[in-house]
Write a structure and sequence with these properties.
The chain is mainly α. It has 2 domains: about 230 residues, no CATH class; about 40 residues, no CATH class. The chain is built from 17 helices and no strands. Keywords: Membrane, Transmembrane, Transmembrane helix. It is found in: Membrane. InterPro entries: Fatty_acid_hydroxylase, Sterol_Desaturase_Related.
């Protein structure tokens, strides 16, 4: 809760006029407890899990030939019943694990110094902290993910997430309850190392989940703005990990590709990409000579 209730008190405390965003924040949060503000995470996560995957779901069900060329595994299709079952399971885990975890984790957030007070962080400060959060989460998640692919970790925990060999957006948070708890650690480490404002924390939680939905989308769109993020893995990178399945020792990183490259866990993926590029070139050449549709050949190649 803010130590001041009025605009005049806040400006006297800061020794300057409030910016427009600070005025909006003051009006919204002045009479709300820090715990209540922190619990906004539950609402944000519910909306993200429920709304963000919907366009991907419509694309999955539309069977549009125009969109199929962007689907990484175009021959693998889920029915509306399968997708709803996935969402229902995710929501069950949300209400019984994710939500309660958010409710009881507030003391740790206070302990590391996440603040709700004025002044608000600058845009530059938010970007720098988010960059740290993503880097720390990606590195830590990489090693935990590798552990979950050992025999015990996979059979006891991680196999649940790999039930979808061709992932969809709703399957991003689909996992064993123990995996949800374990992978909460990498998400917490960044804010613990560089604590900031609750707004930055909200953005971090939201962006991380949206990123997870994107990498599980099953579609690789050439116009996606994430194509311009250095070392960003995206759906194509993570889809290979699900395609290989339980025996996969490739593409463990959650966001970027540098860990897989440094530690040599993307060799299978890079070999496949190199092989596909060569086969596509051969198919294109042969298709043009024989009057065969290059588009149809490449779609079969992606599926096989």
């Amino acid at each position: 809760m803010l130590p001041y209730k009025t605009l005049q008190e806040a400006e006297a405390f800061l020794g300057r006029n409030l910016t427009f965003p600070e005025t909006v924040w003051l009006n919204y949060s002045a009479n709300k407890s820090d715990y209540f503000l922190y619990c906004h995470n539950i609402l944000f996560l519910f909306l993200i899990f429920s709304v963000v995957p919907l366009p991907l779901t419509f694309m999955e069900l539309s069977r549009s030939s125009g969109l199929d060329k962007f689907k990484i595994q175009p021959k693998v299709r889920l029915s509306s019943a399968d997708i709803f079952r996935c969402y229902k399971d995710v929501m069950s885990m949300f209400f019984f694990v994710v939500g309660p975890l958010q409710l009881v984790s507030y003391p740790s957030i206070k302990m590391i110094g996440i603040r709700t007070s004025l002044p608000l962080p600058s845009g530059w400060e938010i970007l720098m902290q988010l960059a740290v959060y993503f880097m720390v989460e990606d590195f830590t998640n990489y090693w935990i993910h590798r552990f979950l692919h050992c025999k015990w970790g996979y059979e006891k925990i991680h196999r649940v997430h790999h039930e979808y060999t061709a992932p969809i957006g709703f399957a991003a948070p689909y996992a064993h309850w123990a995996e949800i708890l374990i992978l909460g650690i990498p998400s917490f480490l960044g804010p613990a190392m560089a604590p900031g404002h609750i707004i930055t924390f909200w953005l971090w939680i939201a962006l991380r989940q949206i990123e997870a939905i994107d990498t599980h989308s099953g579609y690789d769109f050439p116009w996606s703005p994430t194509k311009y993020i250095p070392f960003y893995g995206g759906a194509d990178h993570h889809d290979y990990h699900h395609y290989v399945g339980g025996q996969s020792q490739s593409n463990f990183a959650s966001v970027f590709t540098y860990c897989d490259y440094i530690y040599g866990t993307d060799k299978g993926y890079r070999y496949q990409k190199k092989l596909l590029a060569k086969l596509k070139e051969d198919l294109k050449s042969n298709g043009q000579q024989n009057g065969v549709s290059y588009q149809n050949l490449t779609q079969d190649l992606k599926s096989d």
